[in-house]
């Protein structure tokens, strides 16, 4: 098991053992950040590596947490946050962009509105490429961040009952998270209006990977029973060609105090964020609502991923705190 030099385009590019290695390494990174024990930050050695972030779509969490992660690791960052300011605006292809940026950095993080763009990038680049979201296809590092938060709270990823709610058709976060959870042996409940259901091909994949067939419903209150985690997602206006279609589904699910009273006492609420109206502000103080903590975890998870792909941490077992950044 070695992640050095690999790409991360789909969550299933990594085995369960490799995902576990990322999460274990992220725990060590959280310690180095002073999250645990004494709360003291560990000084990390300077790292002579450059991360390039190429974002052809808006982002707050993913881009900034990747950049924060690289800076925390002691490395440097070059960033293209606005595609209009790049030569993509002059018609440069994705593959050519990937070839060029490979000469300027050691690892690339890319977000693009087209499905499959991350694969094109990875094939053309000569350094590791991390998919930060390609259209409505996948968002594998969000899934790693979700799994990190879930495992921290539940102590395991195995055998949990998880509800995925909202736009399952266009939601790239659930397209990465669902197969990962299924492969760890979780029971899944897909909660969406029929028109925004999980794509058939992905449902088939989840079924192949899972011990049990996912339940499918549009009834959020009824689906809460027995859940260990409810994963809320936004109905994504930007994915609808017809604004009238979006308006039909906007506000279809709103998790509020009334629903939380019906939910299990230990049911975590996660959300990749940003939220619009699907989680009422009144539940932010509910101890089960962990979405802000989830987003914060994006830094140690992405530190771990960068370090593993660059080959600067132990690949076979969780890193020792004192040996985190061997030269
Ligand atoms: N969760 C997520 O991808 O957020 P951003 O779009 O802000 O990166």
Q: Could you please describe the fold and organization of this structure?
A:
- The longest helix has 17 residues, at about 15-30.
- About 35% of the residues lie in helices and about 15% in strands.
- Mean pLDDT is about 90; it is low at about 320-325.
- It folds into two domains: about 10-140 and about 295-310, Aspartate/ornithine carbamoyltransferase (Rossmann fold); about 140-295, 3-Layer(aba) Sandwich (Rossmann fold), CATH 3.40.50.1370.
- With about 325 residues, the protein is an alpha/beta fold.
- β3, α4 (about 115-125) and β4 (about 130-135) form a beta-alpha-beta unit.
- It is built from twelve helices and nine strands.
- A five-stranded parallel sheet has the order 7-6-5-8-9, covered by helices on one side. Strands 2-1-3-4 form a four-stranded parallel sheet, with helices on both faces.
- Bound molecules: phosphoric acid mono(formamide)ester.
Order of H and E elements = HEHEHEHEHEHEHEHEHHEHH
Terminal Cα span? 21 Å
Helix content: 25-40%
What ligand species are in this complex? phosphoric acid mono(formamide)ester
CATH class designation of the largest domain: Alpha Beta
Strand order of the largest sheet: 7-6-5-8-9
DSSP helix count? 12
Q: Structural class of the secondary elements?
A: alpha/beta
CATH evolutionary superfamily of the largest domain: Aspartate/ornithine carbamoyltransferase
Strand proportion:
5-15%
Task: Give the assembly state of these chains.
Answer: single chain
**Quick one: biggest sheet?**
5 strands, parallel
Uncertain regions: pLDDT < 50 for 5+ in a row?
Answer: 319-327
Overall morphology: globular
Question: How many domain modules?
Answer: 2
């Amino acid at each position: 098991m070695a992640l050095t030099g690999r790409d991360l385009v789909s969550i299933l590019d990594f085995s369960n053992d490799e995902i576990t290695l990322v999460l274990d390494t992220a725990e060590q990174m959280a310690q180095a950040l002073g999250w645990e024990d004494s709360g003291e930050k560990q000084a990390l050695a300077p790292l002579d590596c450059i991360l390039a972030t190429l974002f052809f779509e808006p982002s707050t969490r993913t881009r900034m947490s990747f950049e924060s992660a690289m800076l925390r690791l002691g490395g440097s960052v070059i960033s293209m946050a606005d595609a209009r300011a790049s030569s993509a605006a002059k018609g440069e292809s994705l593959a050519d962009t990937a070839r060029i940026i490979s000469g300027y950095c050691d690892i690339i993080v890319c977000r693009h509105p087209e499905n499959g763009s991350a694969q094109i990038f990875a094939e053309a680049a000569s350094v590791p490429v991390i998919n930060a979201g390609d259209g409505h296809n996948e968002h594998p590092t969000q899934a790693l961040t979700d799994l990190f938060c879930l495992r921290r709270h539940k102590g395991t990823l195995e055998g949990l009952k998880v509800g995925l709610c909202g736009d399952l058709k266009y939601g790239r976060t659930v397209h990465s998270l669902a197969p990962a959870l299924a492969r760890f042996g979780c029971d899944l409940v897909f909660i969406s209006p029929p028109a925004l259901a999980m794509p058939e091909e992905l449902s088939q994949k989840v079924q192949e990977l899972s011990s049990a067939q996912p339940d499918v419903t549009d009834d959020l209150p009824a689906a809460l029973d027995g859940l260990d985690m409810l994963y809320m997602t936004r109905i994504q206006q930007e994915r609808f060609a017809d604004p009238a279609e979006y308006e039909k589904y906007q506000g279809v699910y709103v998790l509020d105090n009334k629903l939380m009273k019906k939910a299990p006492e230990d049911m975590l609420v996660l959300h990749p964020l940003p939220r619009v109206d699907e989680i009422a502000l009144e539940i932010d103080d509910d101890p089960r609502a962990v979405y802000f903590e989830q987003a914060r975890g994006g830094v140690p998870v992405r530190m771990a991923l960068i370090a593993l792909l660059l080959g600067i941490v132990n690949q076979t077992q969780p890193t020792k705190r004192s040996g985190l950044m061997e030269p």
